[in-house]
Amino acid sequence: KQSIEDDLAAELNELKESKDKVRRFQKLKTDVAGNFFVSTTVDDPGRLLTAIFEDLKTKQEQRSRYIQRLLPVQTTCKAHIDTMKKTVETVLASYDDSATPELTYLVAGKIRHNTNLKHNAMLQEIVQVVKAARPRWTGELRKPDLVLMLDVLHNVCCISLMPRYLEFRKYNLLEVTKPQQNPEVPKESHPATDIPKDAVQDKDTKLKEEDNAPCEEHEESSGDQNGAGDVSRSTTTETTDKPDDGKPPSNEDSAELSTDALKGGDVDSDKPAEPCGD
User: Ranges for the THUMP domain (predicted)?
Assistant: First the structure.
């Protein structure tokens, strides 16, 4: 018969072994308010999220109480423009566009807590990469087939390829359950696609309604040099409870789902690790 000390020792050993196991979903800190990051062993987080949003859209039932947006992240890299360009090339090379080789695309991005990158300059550099890697693709501001998102958190860049971006209401878990009518890229966003350089406005310049339509919202966030951050989304450290009246929270809470762990000194694992869940 084992003693109490033996039982405690066995339980401690079991806990230590469980910490060493790779979790299928692992929450990571981003140190950006309202955002958290989920590392996963799922081969393709994009397919997983497509299945989730198709189900939400079909059933029109809200399944999330604390998270507003859930974005797929194909990979992460250091937030240096040369590294980002090389990583985008790799991501584009692995993307299968055999079904629609001449699709339309839009490049969008947000920069939070990083003063080294300039929003418009970053987008213009990435647009040139897309043109070289996928010459048959065409830039489209209002209704793109595919959105390439660059989400910079501190010194880490999360790179996402998001099809059906407007159909899934910018991957918003709450909005996608509502009836949809002719979705368009919201006018408050700032896009960069296959367009002349002077067509990409500075962040303080409003795009004319008849000329351009934006891709991603610019929301002011403390510490965000470009003012292009989510005040609150996904994958970000803390989220806000949805009010009891059923209305979504005023700030956008989101989560980023990726097969990679965030690479950077400002992003660390929560201790103890927590599984991802609504």
Answer: 55-163
Report how many helices (DSSP H) and strands (DSSP E) the chain contains, helices first: 4, 9
* Whole-number Cα distances in Å, 84 to 19, 88, 89, 166, 177: 32, 6, 9, 25, 34
- The span from the CA of 56 to the CA of 63, in Å, is 8
Q: Which residues, 6 or more positions from 44, have their beta carbon under 8 angstroms from its beta carbon?
A: 259
Side-chain-facing half-sphere of 199: CA atoms under 13 Å: 16
Nearest-angstrom CA–CA distance, 205 and 227: 13
Tokens representing residue 212 in the block: 């351009």
The rounded distance, in Å, linking the Cα atoms of 79 and 151 is 9
CA distances from 134 to 104, 127, 204 (A): 11, 10, 31
Domains of the chain: 22-258 (3.30.2300.10)
> Where is 232: in which H helix or E strand?
none
Helix axes 81-94, 119-133, angle to 10 degrees: 40
Q: Is the pLDDT of residue 55 over 90?
A: yes
- pLDDT single digits (tens) 71-104: 999 999 999 999 999 999 999 999 988 888 899 9
Distance CA 132, CA 143 (A): 22
Backbone angles phi, psi at 58, to 5 degrees: -70, -45
Give me 204's structure tokens.
Answer: 């303080």
pLDDT at 177 over 70: yes
